[in-house]
UniProtKB/TrEMBL annotation:
One of its GO terms (biological process) is telomere maintenance via recombination. It comes from Dendroctonus ponderosae. Keywords: ATP-binding, Chromosome, Coiled coil, DNA damage, DNA repair, Hydrolase, Magnesium, Meiosis, Metal-binding, Nucleotide-binding, Nucleus, Zinc. Its main location: nucleus. Gene3D superfamilies: P-loop containing nucleotide triphosphate hydrolases. GO terms for cellular component: condensed nuclear chromosome; Mre11 complex. It catalyses: ATP + H2O = ADP + phosphate + H(+). This is DNA repair protein RAD50.
C-alpha cells in the first residue's frame, strides 16, 4: 500500500519564506500537536495541493495560500512544497511544486504557479526526473496512490472546515458520493453508448435503403454487360468479313506504294540539292567576311604605328628606324616604371617630413598633458589639506566638552558602587539555594506518590471501561441475534425457493452468490442461444426476402420477354416464324438473281432468233421453217425484258423488308433463349430455394420460443438472488459479528485486573485530585522562590555590567584629553602646506599657457605642409595615368594584330574557293539524277492510272455488299458505344464495389449495434452490483466503528441509506440519493438536524474512516484534522481507544499510516499510552510570527 515519506514546506500560509520546515512521516502513526492558528492544518493543505493541485477553499484563488509579502517587507514571496511518498509497488515518487505571490501596483496580490517537478525512483534504484504540466502530475499522483482524486480530497486528506460533509444537505451529500463512486462519469458513459446505439440504428435503416438501391443498380449493370458481350461478338463477325474483303485489295495497294517510294526518292534528291545550294551561299558569305577583315587589319597596323610615334614623343624616347616594335614597347614600359618609382620616392619624402612635424606636435602635447596633470593633482591636494585642517579644528573644539563629561562619569561610577554594595549585603545566596533544594525534594516525593496513584487509577479505570464494554457488547450481541432472526424471517419464502428446505446457517452469501452465478451462466447461455437464433432468423428472413425478390424479378423479366416476342411474332411460335422467314428470304434471293441475269439471257435469245438461221438457244430447235413465229417470239422476249426492271425492284424491296424483319428476329434469338433458361432452370431453382428457407425459418422460430420459455426460470432465480444477496451478506456479517462478540466477551472477562489496594475507583480518583492540588501549590511556591532568586542575581549582574561600562568610558575620555597638543601642532603644519601648494599651482599654470601657444604654431605649420604635398602628388599621378592609358592602347592593338596574323586568313580564303568549285560539280550531278527520276515517275504514273481504274471497278462491284456490311457494323458499333458509355459512367463502373462495400458496411453496423447493446447492459449491471457491494461494506464498517467508539446509549448505530432514482424515458439511467440515519431499537431517523455537534463530528469521522477502509485498498494513508472537536471527554477517550485498536491491528502492516492533527495534549497522551510511538511534531510560531515544526520525544 502507498504511504507518505517526508514533506518540506517553505513560504506557505504562516510558514516563513526563508526557512524550510521538514516532516518525516512515521508508520503506523504520525502526530502533530499545536495551538489554534499555529499552522497545523496547513500541513494537510500542502499535502493535498502537492497530490491534487487543488487550492484550499477561502484562499482567494491562491493569494492567501502563500505567505503575504508584507510580512517580509518584500514585493514578492516564493513558496515551495516537496512531498515524497511510496506507491503500492514500493516505488518512490517525489513531487515538487513552486508558487509565488507578487504585490501589484494597486496593492493587490497576484498568485502564480512557477513550476512543477516530478521524480520517480523504483525499488531497483532506477530514477527518472521530469517537468510536466500540473494536470499531468496530479493525475500521475492519483494513479500511483491507486485512489481517485475525490477520495484524496473528501476522505484521506479532508480539511477540518469540510470534515462534516456527510451531514450536509442532501444535494451536497449526493454530489460528494457521486464524486466518490464516479456516478456522473459512468452515467455519461452509458448515455453516450445509448445515444450511439440510437444513431447507429438510424444509420442501419438508412444503409438498408442504400443497399436496396445499390442492388437494383447492380442488376441493371449486369443486364447492360450481357447485352454488350452479345454486340461485341456480332461486331467481331462483321469485322472478320470486312478484313477478308480488304485482303483482296492489298495487291493494288502494294503497286501504289512502289510508285510512292519513287516519288519519295525524287523528294530526297531535291532536298540534297537544296542543301548544297544553301551551303554554297553560306561559304560565299564567309569569303566576303574574310576579305573585309583583311581591310580592317591594314587600318589597325597604320593606327598602331601612329600610337608608337606618339608614345616616343610622350616619353622622350629615341629609337632607330629598323628597331623592332617589341623592343620599342619594352623601352616604353621601362620609362613608365621609372616614372612610377619617382612618384613613390617623392611620396615617401613628403610622408617623412609630415612625420617629423607630427612628432614635434606629439612632444608638445605630452608636455602640456603632464603640466595639466601636475596642476590638477596639486589642486586636489590643496582641497584635501583644507578639509583635514577643518576636521582637526572641529576635533579640537570637541575636546573642550570632554572635561564636563569626565566629571559626570565619575559621579555615576560612585553611585553604581554604592548600589552594588547594598544589594550584596541584603541578598544571602546560600540560604536561598538551600530553601529551593528543600522544595524540590518535597515536589519529587509528591510526584512519586502521584505516579503510584496514577498506575492504580489507570488499572481501576481500565476495569471500569472493561465492565462498560462487557455490558455494551452483551446488549449488542442480543440486538444482532434479533436482527439475524428478523432478516431470516423476512426472506423465508425466497430462501425456501433457493435452498428448498435446507437453509445454511453460515456462508449464506457465498451460497446465494454461487446459485446466482450458476443461474446467470444458464441465463447467459440461453441468451446467447436466443441471440444466435434471432440472428439466424434475421439472416433467413433477409434470405427469403432476397429470394422472393429474385423470383419476382425473373418472373417479371420472363413476362417482358414473352410480350416482346409476341409483339414481333404476332402470337405464333418464334422458331416457326424464323424458319418460314428464312425460306421466303432464300426464294426472294433466287428470284432476284434470276431477274438480274434474265436481261442478258433474253438479249442472247433475241440475237439468236435474229440470225439468218434462227434456232432456239435452249434446245437448238431450228426455226428456219417457222420464220413467221420468230417475230412474235422476239416481241414477247422484248416485252419480258421491259418488265424485268419492275419485277427486280419489287423483289429487291420485298427482300429488304424481309431481311429487316429477319434481323429483328435474329436480335430476339437471345431473348428467346433467355425465356427457355428462365422457365426451365432459374424459376424452378428459386422456388425450391424459397420453400427450403421458409421451412428452416419456421423451425428456428419454434426453437426460439422454446429457448425463451427455458430462460424464464433462471431469470426468476437470479432476480431472487439479487433481492436477498445484500441481506444475506448482512446475515453472514452479523453471524460473524455474533461469533466475534462472544469471543470478545470472553476476552474482556479475562482482561479484568485485580488491584492490591482496597480503595474504590472514586476514592482513588479523589485522593489523586487532592495530591495533584498539593503538588500544584508546591510547584507554584517553588516557582515564585526561584523567580525571586533569579531576579536578584540578575540585578546584581546588571549593576556590575553598568559599572564596567562607565569605567571604560572614563578611560576613553582621559585618552582623548591627552591628544590636544598634538592637534594644535597639526593645524600649523596644514597652514604651511596650503601656502606652498598655491605658489606651485601658479607656476604650473604659466607653463601650460606656453605649451598651448607652441602646440598651435606646430599644428598650423603641419597643415600647410600636408596641403602643398597633396597638390604636387596629384600632378605626378595624372601624368603617370596618361602614360599608362597610352601603353594599354598600344598593347591592345598589338594583340589584335597578332591574332589576325595567327588566324591564317589567306589559307582559309583559298580553302573556301576550292570548296565552292566542288559544290558546283555536285549540283550538276544531282540535276542529272533528278531528270532520270522524273522520267521514271512519268511511266509509273501512267501505270498507276490503269491500276486505279481497275481498283475503282473492283470497288464498284463490291459496293453493295460493303454498304450492307457497313450498315450492320455501324449499327453494332452504335449499340456497343451506347452500352460502353453507359457502363463507363461512375454509377455503373463502380456498382459492384459499391454494392459489396455497402453490404459489408450494413453487416458491420448491425453487429456493432448488437455488441453495443450487450456491452451497455453489462456495464449498467456492473455499476449497480459495484454500488450495492460497496454500500454493504461501508455500512458494516460504520456500524462496527460506531459501536466501538460511541459511549452514549441514545443511538445503537448509524448507516448510510440509499434511495434509487431511476431516470425517466427509455434509458435506464440510475442515480442514488443518500442520507445518514441513526438507528435505535430498529427505528431509523435521519441524523441531520437531530444530532449534537459532538455526534455530528463523530459520525462524520466514522463515515470517513469507513470510506477510507473501503476505497483505499492499496493506500493505507488517513489524515484526521482535529478529530476531538466538540467531543466530550468520554467520547474522546473511546475515540482514542478505537484508534489505538485500529493501529494495533494494522501495526504489522508496514504500509498503514495514520496522521492525526490535534491541539488536545491529553488526547495525544491517551492515544500514545498503549502505542510504541517515539516522538511527535509540535507546531508553533517563533519570535518573528512564522510557523515552525519541532520534533519532540515522548
Amino acid at each position: 500500500m502507498a504511504v507518505l515519506d517526508r514533506l518540506h514546506i517553505r513560504g506557505i500560509r504562516s510558514f516563513g519564506p526563508n526557512d524550510e520546515e521538514k516532516v518525516k512521516f512515521s508508520v503506523p502513526l504520525t502526530l502533530f500537536l499545536g495551538q489554534n492558528g499555529c499552522g497545523k492544518t496547513t500541513i494537510i493543505e500542502c499535502i493535498k495541493y502537492a497530490l491534487t493541485g487543488d487550492l484550499p477553499s477561502g484562499s482567494d484563488s491562491g493569494r492567501g495560500f502563500v505567505n503575504d509579502p508584507k510580512l517580509s517587507s518584500k514585493s514578492s514571496t516564493k513558496g515551495s512544497i516537496k512531498l515524497k511518498f511510496n506507491d503500492f509497488k514500493g516505488d518512490s515518487i517525489t513531487v515538487a511544486k513552486f508558487v509565488e505571490v507578487t504585490t501589484l501596483a494597486a496593492g493587490k496580490l497576484r498568485f502564480k504557479n512557477i513550476s512543477n517537478a516530478l521524480q520517480w525512483k523504483d525499488n531497483q534504484g532506477r530514477a527518472q526526473e521530469t517537468e510536466q504540466k500540473c494536470a499531468d502530475i496530479d493525475l500521475y499522483c492519483a494513479q500511483k496512490l491507486n485512489v481517485s482524486k475525490a477520495i484524496i480530497n473528501n476522505v484521506i486528506f479532508c480539511h477540518q472546515e469540510n470534515s462534516s460533509w456527510p451531514l450536509e444537505e442532501a444535494k451536497k451529500l449526493k454530489e460528494k458520493f457521486d464524486e466518490i463512486f464516479g456516478a456522473t462519469e459512468y452515467n455519461k458513459c452509458v448515455e453516450k453508448l445509448r445515444k450511439l446505439i440510437k444513431e447507429k440504428k438510424v444509420y442501419v435503416k438508412l444503409l438498408k435503403e442504400q443497399f436496396t438501391q445499390k442492388k437494383m443498380a447492380k442488376q441493371t449493370t449486369d443486364k447492360l454487360r450481357d447485352r454488350l458481350c452479345d454486340e461485341e461478338s456480332r461486331l467481331e463477325r462483321i469485322q472478320t468479313i470486312i478484313d477478308e474483303k480488304r485482303n483482296e485489295i492489298k495487291p493494288l495497294r502494294i503497286r501504289l506504294n512502289e510508285v510512292h517510294v519513287i516519288i519519295d526518292s525524287i523528294t530526297e534528291t531535291h532536298a540534297k540539292l537544296t542543301g548544297l545550294e544553301t551551303r554554297l551561299k553560306d561559304e560565299q558569305v564567309t569569303l566576303g567576311q574574310l576579305k573585309q577583315e583583311k581591310v580592317h587589319h591594314t587600318k589597325r597596323c597604320e593606327e598602331f604605328k601612329e600610337l608608337i610615334q606618339k608614345a616616343k614623343v610622350k616619353f622622350d624616347l629615341e629609337c632607330e628606324e629598323s628597331e623592332s616594335v617589341y623592343n620599342i614597347i619594352d623601352k616604353l614600359n621601362n620609362k613608365y616604371s621609372t616614372k612610377e618609382k619617382m612618384m613613390i620616392n617623392e611620396k615617401k619624402i613628403m610622408d617623412e617630413k609630415e612625420g617629423r612635424l607630427q612628432s614635434n606636435i606629439d612632444r608638445i602635447r605630452s608636455k602640456l598633458a603632464a603640466a595639466e596633470e601636475n596642476s590638477s593633482s596639486k589642486s586636489k591636494l590643496l582641497n584635501e589639506t583644507n578639509i583635514k585642517l577643518g576636521e582637526t579644528k572641529c576635533k579640537l573644539g570637541r575636546l573642550s566638552h570632554s572635561h564636563s563629561q569626565l566629571e559626570s562619569t565619575t559621579k555615576k561610577m560612585k553611585k553604581f558602587e554604592d548600589d552594588l554594595t547594598k544589594k550584596k549585603d541584603e541578598f544571602d545566596e546560600g540560604q536561598a539555594s538551600r530553601q529551593l533544594e528543600d522544595l524540590e525534594e518535597q515536589i519529587t516525593q509528591k510526584e512519586q506518590l502521584q505516579t503510584k496513584l496514577d498506575r492504580e487509577y489507570k488499572t481501576l479505570q481500565q476495569n471500569y471501561w472493561t465492565d462498560q464494554k462487557i455490558e455494551s457488547e452483551t446488549s449488542t450481541l442480543l440486538e444482532k441475534r434479533a436482527e439475524v432472526a428478523a432478516l431470516k424471517e423476512k426472506h423465508e419464502h425466497s430462501f425456501a425457493i433457493l435452498f428448498k428446505e435446507d437453509v445454511l446457517a453460515h456462508e449464506l452469501e457465498m451460497s446465494i452468490a454461487s446459485i446466482q452465478n450458476r443461474e446467470e451462466q444458464k441465463a447467459t447461455s440461453l441468451s446467447k442461444s436466443i441471440s444466435t437464433n434471432e440472428r439466424k432468423i434475421a439472416s433467413l428472413e433477409a434470405g427469403v426476402k432476397n429470394v422472393r425478390e429474385k423470383l419476382e424479378t425473373q418472373q417479371e423479366e420472363l413476362k417482358r420477354s414473352k410480350e416482346k416476342i409476341e409483339r414481333v411474332c404476332e402470337g405464333q411460335p418464334y422458331s416457326e416464324v424464323l424458319n418460314q422467314l428464312h425460306t421466303k428470304k432464300e426464294t426472294l434471293q433466287k428470284n432476284k438473281g434470276t431477274y438480274r441475269s434474265a436481261t442478258t439471257i433474253f438479249a442472247n435469245f433475241i440475237s439468236e432468233f435474229e440470225q439468218e438461221a434462227p434456232c432456239c438457244p435452249v434446245c437448238d430447235t431450228s426455226f428456219a421453217s417457222k420464220k413467221s413465229l420468230v417475230p412474235k417470239i422476239i416481241t414477247k422476249l422484248k416485252t419480258k425484258i421491259e418488265d424485268l426492271p419492275r419485277k427486280l425492284a419489287d423483289t429487291e424491296a420485298q427482300l429488304i423488308k424481309e431481311e429487316e424483319f429477319y434481323n429483328k428476329l435474329q436480335q430476339l434469338k437471345q431473348v428467346n433463349e433467355n425465356i427457355q433458361v428462365i422457365e426451365e432452370a432459374k424459376i424452378p431453382l428459386l422456388q425450391e430455394e424459397l420453400q427450403e428457407n421458409e421451412d428452416k425459418l419456421e423451425d428456428l422460430k419454434l426453437e426460439l420460443a422454446s429457448l425463451k420459455n427455458d430462460l424464464t426460470e433462471p431469470e426468476n432465480l437470479v432476480g431472487i438472488c439479487r433481492k436477498v444477496l445484500s441481506d444475506a451478506a448482512l446475515i453472514d456479517r452479523l453471524s460473524q459479528e455474533i461469533t466475534k462478540s462472544e469471543d470478545l466477551l470472553e476476552t474482556l472477562r479475562k482482561d479484568l485486573i485485580s488491584v492490591p489496594s482496597s480503595r474504590s475507583f472514586e476514592e482513588t480518583e479523589t485522593q489523586l485530585h487532592k495530591l495533584k492540588s498539593e503538588l500544584k501549590n508546591l510547584t507554584v511556591h517553588y516557582k515564585s522562590k526561584r523567580d525571586l532568586f533569579d531576579e536578584t542575581r540578575e540585578g546584581i549582574r546588571k549593576l556590575i555590567t553598568q559599572l564596567q561600562m562607565e569605567t571604560q568610558k572614563q578611560l576613553e575620555m582621559q585618552k582623548i584629553l591627552q591628544e590636544q597638543p598634538m592637534l594644535e601642532k597639526q593645524i600649523c603644519e596644514y597652514k604651511k602646506s596650503i601656502s606652498k601648494l598655491k605658489e606651485e599651482i601658479k607656476s604650473v599654470a604659466e607653463k601650460v599657457a606656453t605649451y598651448k601657444k607652441e602646440l598651435s604654431e606646430a599644428e598650423s605649420k603641419r597643415s600647410e605642409t600636408v596641403l602643398n604635398n597633396s597638390k604636387l602628388l596629384e600632378e605626378y599621378r595624372l601624368n603617370v595615368d596618361a602614360c599608362s592609358r597610352l601603353i594599354e592602347e598600344i598593347a591592345k592593338l598589338q594583340k589584335t594584330i597578332q591574332g589576325f596574323e595567327q588566324g591564317d586568313v589567306s589559307a582559309r580564303l583559298e580553302s573556301i574557293k576550292n570548296s565552292l568549285d566542288g559544290h558546283k560539280s555536285d549540283i550538276e550531278k544531282l540535276e542529272q539524277t533528278k531528270k532520270l527520276l522524273i522520267n521514271a515517275v512519268v511511266k509509273k504514273k501512267e501505270d498507276l492510272a490503269s491500276q486505279e481504274s481497275k481498283l475503282r471497278s473492283f470497288k464498284d462491284n463490291k459496293e453493295l455488299r460493303a454498304s450492307r456490311m457497313k450498315s450492320k457494323q455501324l449499327e453494332s458499333e452504335d449499340l456497343i458505344h451506347k452500352d460502353t458509355t453507359e457502363l463507363n459512367k461512375k454509377e455503373h463502373r463502380e456498382v459492384v464495389t459499391e454494392y459489396k462495400k455497402k453490404y459489408y458496411e450494413l453487416r458491420v453496423e448491425e453487429l456493432a449495434v448488437i455488441d453495443l447493446e450487450v456491452y451497455t447492459e453489462a456495464l449498467e449491471k456492473s455499476i449497480l452490483t459495484f454500488h450495492q457491494e460497496r454500500m454493504v461494506q461501508i455500512n458494516m464498517t460504520i456500524r462496527e466503528l460506531w459501536r466501538n467508539i460511541y459511549r452514549g446509549n441514545d443511538i445503537d448505530y448509524i448507516e448510510i441509506q440509499t434511495v434509487d432514482d431511476i431516470g425517466g424515458g427509455g434509458a435506464r439511467k440510475r442515480s442514488y440519493n443518500y442520507k445518514v440515519v441513526q438507528v435505535k431499537k430498529g427505528t431509523d431517523l435521519e441524523m441531520r438536524g437531530r444530532c449534537s455537534a459532538g455526534q455530528k463530528v463523530l459520525a462524520s469521522l466514522v463515515i470517513r474512516m469507513a470510506l477510507a477502509e473501503t476505497f483505499s485498498a492499496n493506500c493505507g494513508i488517513l489524515a484526521l484534522d482535529e478529530p476531538t472537536t466538540n467531543l466530550d471527554r468520554d467520547n474522546i477517550t473511546s475515540l482514542s481507544e478505537a484508534l489505538s485498536r485500529i493501529i494495533t491491528a494494522r501495526e504489522g502492516q508496514k504500509n498503514f499510516q495514520l496522521l492525526i492533527i490535534t491541539h488536545d495534549e491529553e488526547f495525544l497522551q491517551t492515544l500514545t499510552r498503549d502505542q510504541s510511538v517515539s516522538h511527535y511534531y509540535r507546531v508553533q510560531q517563533n519570535s518573528e510570527g512564522f510557523s515552525e515544526i519541532q520534533k519532540q520525544s515522548l
